[in-house]
Write a structure and sequence with these properties.
About 35% of the residues lie in helices and about 10% in strands. The protein is α/β, with parallel strands linked by helices and about 475 residues long. The protein starts with 7 loop residues before the first helix and ends in an 11-residue tail after the last helix. The chain binds glutamine.
């Protein structure tokens, strides 16, 4: 068994006992990439001739999504407009990883341009494929990170989640993905999509790795004024505590038309398992759920249109040639941004424009509060909320590219979590008859990642789903 197949905590044990060296892990990862990466395309700029010497590795490697700054290492958000951008600094999460002895894998994970998407089909480097079936999408926008972990092309990875971009690809690829509480993890050095929704989080092979990685990247950062100044608990302490006595809410609004029948069966089975393990569950209501998608696509595009204003071709990235300044800006943006980025800039600018601000943006902010209040009410009586991560398993490449609205609806179960700022995980909980993975989503109250890890670990340790690997 190649070292690329092990979890991070298993490899940490082997490194500690000096059974292996960091370069042994890199060697096996590079061998795996040579073998499967031409088919999976989980990495943004992988070239077999670009593989560095594994000798240089100092620690356990981690794969980083292309929108998280890595000093000296290209960070292009899979967009032409950031071509050749090498950040002069590390994102705080990257600096924390380095300080913990983790080394940055020399290739960055593919993603939808600027994290706009649910399928990784919006990357300027082409589509990543789902390791379980190469004709299917890996989900998005962190599809490269999820496919790399699922296909044993990475030990573990970081993604970012604005409306589901960690959890939905984790679900489609059969791995673990956590969107932490807003403010738990610093966003410094994460190229902003929607600043009030974005969080960086782990994509891993099991729950223990997710708990370890969350512990490393969390904590107050003076460089991010929205990061919260409080003690980070030892998340591994929540593992092994079981599910006995936990109160689970099942929101009725998530089990409606549009939920795939096979996904529903798998989720029902998983809930039965948790009951068997001693948890109690009850139907609850999150009455404003139906507004989550429209509210999200107003707020997220409004913030994105403002955040993307900085890409003008002047200081870094792509620049179109022109003798005239305004013309240069226009040509740079017209040629540099992809279709989905332009759609979002137009939608967001419209929602913020005079006369429409009150009707759309301000109203969306008010409804966002109502969505948050729904969660607060349920968490007064329940420890966690469990739902499917996505209404369907992975879909075919090309299936939704012509219909943006259909694509937007694939995040219907993940988006509310970002609007409310709460944490949620997706863990593997079964397969469809065709052999595509299904993810179980567990949500908890703000800063209660411990409960999430506790439930997720209890489920995982009593099932075998996380051990099944795709045949590539
Ligand atoms: N799919 C959603 C979108 O396109 C979420 C993306 C994300 O979380 N970055 O906005």
């Amino acid at each position: 068994m190649g070292l690329n197949q092990f979890t991070a905590h298993e490899l940490m044990g082997k490194l500690k006992s000096r059974e292996i060296l960091p370069r042994d892990i890199l060697e096996d990862l590079f061998a795996r990439l040579k073998e499967v990466e031409p088919r999976v395309k989980a990495y943004a700029r992988f070239k077999p001739e670009g593989i560095p010497s594994p000798e240089q590795s100092l620690g356990l490697p981690i794969t980083i999504k292309d929108n998280i700054c890595t000093e000296g290492l290209k960070t292009e958000c899979c967009s032409k407009i950031l071509v050749n951008f090498r950040p002069p600094y590390d994102a705080t999460v990257v600096a924390k990883l380095k300080a913990a002895g983790v080394s940055i894998f020399p290739f960055k994970a593919n993603m939808d341009e600027f994290a706009f998407g649910s399928s990784t089909e919006n990357s300027c480097f082409g589509t990543t494929r789902n390791p379980w079936d190469l004709e299917y999408v890996p989900g998005g926008s962190s599809g490269g990170s999820a496919a790399a972990v699922a296909g044993d092309e990475a030990v573990w990875a970081l993604g970012s989640d604005t409306g589901g971009s960690i959890r939905q690809p984790a679900s489609f690829c059969g791995v673990v993905g956590l969107k932490p509480t807003y403010g738990l993890v610093s966003r410094f050095g994460l190229v902003a999509f929607a600043s009030s929704l974005d969080q960086i989080g782990p994509i891993t092979k099991d729950v223990e790795d997710a708990a370890i990685l969350t512990g490393i990247i969390s904590g107050y950062d003076p460089n991010d004024s929205t990061s919260v100044n409080q003690q980070v608990p030892d998340y591994t302490g929540s593992l092994g505590k079981g599910a006995k006595g936990l109160k689970i809410g099942i929101p009725k609004e998530y089990f409606i038309e549009g939920l795939d029948a096979e996904v529903k069966d798998v989720i029902d089975e998983a809930l039965n398992k948790l009951k068997f393990l001693g948890a109690v569950s009850k139907e609850v209501s999150l009455p404003h759920t139906q507004y989550a998608v429209p509210v999200y696509y107003i707020i997220a595009t409004a913030e994105a249109s403002s955040n993307l204003a900085r890409f003008d071709g002047v200081q870094y990235g792509y620049r179109a040639s022109s003798d005239e300044l305004i013309e240069m800006y226009k040509k740079t943006r017209a040629e540099g941004f992809g279709e989905e980025a332009k759609r979002r800039i137009i939608l967001g600018t419209f929602a913020l424009s005079h006369g429409y601000y009150d009707a759309y943006y301000l109203r969306a902010l008010k409804v966002r509060t109502l969505i948050k209040n729904d969660f607060d009410a349920v968490f007064r009586d329940f420890d966690c909320i469990i739902t499917p991560t996505s209404p369907t398993p992975a879909f075919r490449i090309g299936e939704k590219t012509q219909d943006p609205l259909k694509m937007y609806l694939s995040d219907i179960y993940t988006i509310s979590v970002n609007l409310a700022g709460i944490p949620a995980i997706s863990i593997p909980c079964g397969f469809t008859k065709k052999g595509l993975p299904v993810g179980l989503q567990i949500m908890a109250k703000p800063f209660d990642e411990e409960t999430i890890f506790r439930v997720a670990h209890a489920f995982e340790q009593n099932t075998e789903w996380h051990k099944i690997k795709p045949k590539l």
